[in-house]
Amino acid sequence: MAYIDLIQKIHSASKRDYLQERVIGLDKAACAEISKKFGYDYWDGDRKYGYGGYRYDGRWRPVAEDLSRHYGLSSGSSVVDLGCGKGYLLYELTQIHPGIMVRGIDISRYAIENAKEEVKPFITAGNATSLPYEDDYFDYIISITTLHNLYNYELRKALQEIERVGKQNKHVIVESYRNEREKANLLYWQLTCRSFYTPDEWEWFMAESGYTGDYSYIVFE
């Protein structure tokens, strides 16, 4: 298991006012209840519920290029994105590698219905705790800021499922915190998280679950 950072630069490029956007003057609990439905409000509604509008803008192209180089992806590769949302990363991979086999799973039917048209046929509704694929099915598995939305007992099963269906290369990206300030900011900002761990705890949990792939995390400085 290695630490491979492919996303922090994109995460850091977005400016956030943790208190004004997600805490002050809001009923945080009520907002979280709506967000956890992962419907219109979470993706395309007010910022207090989630993304505040999640539309294609090309931001995932550099990530697709970086992971393609690092993991040696090609037009003959098979890739699955767990928690793929509207499929923008998968779309970028198909543009870089015409002919690549892509699949995506997301719990949000709204995201699937509003996915990028080019990859919508390859995205299905589902949960990472029970993947509808055979053993050693994919050359590369990626999950970006998704698994921390699971309870710890679900997280263990999801990591075991990733290990089962992946041939070799796997990469999980989660939210984390390294100090009390980042912990407070994460708690201010999050709406759907159920697993809150430091990097050391994440590494321990992944190892205990039998996960052997790579991982990284984003923090809220």
Largest sheet: 6 strands, parallel
CATH architecture group name: 3-Layer(aba) Sandwich
Strand order of the largest sheet: 3-2-1-4-5-6
Whole-number radius of gyration? 17 Å
Helicity, in percent? 25-40%
CATH H-level superfamily: Vaccinia Virus protein VP39
Structural class: alpha/beta
* Number of continuous helical runs: 10
Count of distinct strands:
6
What is the succession of H and E elements? HHHHHEHEHEEHEHHE
The parts where pLDDT drops under 50 for at least 5 residues are none
Q: Total domains, how many? A: 1
Q: Could you explain how this protein is built, in words?
A:
With 221 residues, the protein is an alpha/beta fold. The protein has a single domain, classed as Rossmann fold (3-Layer(aba) Sandwich), CATH 3.40.50. 38% of the residues lie in helices and 16% in strands. It is built from 10 helices and 6 strands. The protein has a 6-stranded parallel sheet with strand order 3-2-1-4-5-6. β2, α7 and β3 form a beta-alpha-beta unit. The longest helix has 14 residues. It starts with 7 loop residues before the first helix and ends with a strand. The model has no long low-confidence stretch (mean pLDDT 96).
List keywords for this structure.
single chain; 221 residues; alpha/beta; 6 strands; 16% strand; globular; Rossmann fold; six-stranded parallel beta sheet
Itemize the secondary structure elements and their pairings:
Blueprint: H1 8-13, H2 18-22, H3 28-35, H4 40-44, H5 61-71, E1 78-82, H6 88-96, E2 101-106, H7 109-113, E3 123-125, E4 138-144, H8 152-165, E5 166-175, H9 180-189, H10 199-208, E6 214-218
Parallel strand pairs: 1-2, 1-4, 2-3, 4-5, 5-6
